[in-house]
Structure formats: C-alpha cells, structure tokens
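note to self: dont lose this again. the chain is below, predicted strucutre after it. 272 aa total, dont forget to put it in the shared folder this time
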Amino acid sequence: MFGAINTQLPDAITTYEEAHAKWASIKPIRGREDQNTRPLARRANDSLTIRQDTKTNDIVVRLYSTDIVTYHSPDGDQANHITLEPYASALTNRIISSLFGYTHLHTHWADRDHPAPDHITGVNGRYYNTPDYAYIRCGDPEWTLVSGAKPFEVPRLDRKGGKQALRDANYYTFKLWLETRIRLGVIEFGYLWSRSPYKWTPRLAWQYLTAGEEGWAEVVKRMSSSTPLERELESLRRAVYSYAGCYDTETVEYFDSWQQLDAALRQMRRIA
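---
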C-alpha cells in the first residue's frame, strides 16, 4: 500500500490556483458516489486524495483519514494561506516535501515519544514547534508562519552553580575513587548487558553520592561496562544538576538554523 505512493509522489502544488487546477484536471472515479474526492497519486490507490470543500471551496489534500494540507480559497478571509496539520509519519513528510520542496517550507514531524518537541515546521529558514497545526501565509518571495507555533522551552545550565553542586555532592571525589579502582582492576560494573547509560533520578543520584563509599558502590552497580564511562558519568552529572536546580529555562520562539534547533533538541531530551 505504501509502495504505490512512494513510487509516485504528487507534483509540486504551492498555491491555491495550482491546487484547484490539479483537482479539476483529475477525472473522478467512475461509479463512485463521491465524485468530489479524487486520487492524487495512483488512481487505484485511495490513500492520498484531493478534494474541494463544498462549503468554503478550499482544496484539501488527505492522507488516509487525515487532512494534511488545506489550500484556502481566495474568496474567503484566508486567501493566500495554507494550513498544515502535523501527522507524525515519514510518509507525511515525504508528501509535504513533494508538494512544497524545500524552497518555502518543509516538515520534521517525527513519530516518536520524546519529551522534547517532535513536530517541527521550517518556513523560510526558520524552525518552529508546531504541535497542532501550522498556518502559513504564502508570499512572493517570503512565506511566513502566521500562527500555530508554541515556544521552545530550552534548559540552560548555570555552569558556576553546576560545579558547586558537583562539589557538594562529592562527585569529584567519587570520580577519583572510581578511576583508581578501575586502574587497580578491582571494579565490577552491575549492568553488563546495557549499552545505554543508567538514567538517574536526581534524588537517588544525590543520595548515593553523598553517602560515601557505600553509596558509591551502589552507583557502580548501576553502571555498565558496555557503555563508555564518560556517558555514564554525564548521566550522573545531569542528575546532580537537576537535584540542585542548576538549570534555567530559556523561552525561544523559533530557531534560525537547523544546527541551533538540533543542539536545543538534544539538550531538552538529555535533561527531560
């Protein structure tokens, strides 16, 4: 089912006029009661369709049971606007890319359950968090996001406060103790099978680190020899920072580059 669309994605449709002309050029499927809804990809595949809204004259592109793009009629109050409905799937992103390319906008709607935003829409080089919808004004040459964005809440570490928190938690002493035991070959990690660092709760990390060698041994039991030591220690440090309240939150409306966005998302997912 997916292959039919993957091998024949729709051509570019960037304006209402183009969308209406495309819809009008497609012959309805003979014998069907709904002559308004027409196949946008292969005629034998109803997964991707295009139709005209009989009340507003908007042109709507639908994937399965979700309206993913609406080209608003020039006869209404929303002339020269397009609405995108985020549906988290790789196929949706491919269709959006085919319809708009990367000239004006593209989407990064991920089908994942991360604490950080997963519905990102790029409009003219700016990246927005659009969890519910993206309402876009089509301009020449500028396209702009009119509404639908929610700000990013990015945690920022107070480095001076973080260093003090690590000292208060005996982290540096623990690290020296751990490295010495590793050199002596008398350390035994507990989670030998795990390839990911242990995800510490802030309270438990602080409790064990401040308990001396008995607590440090409990920390080591939760580490894995299959995970790089620095990753294990980073997870432990982040828990200490969280317990001591070393993170401030910066509200960001949008990012001007993918590199900035990617760095912020990584930070949000690490801290969450």
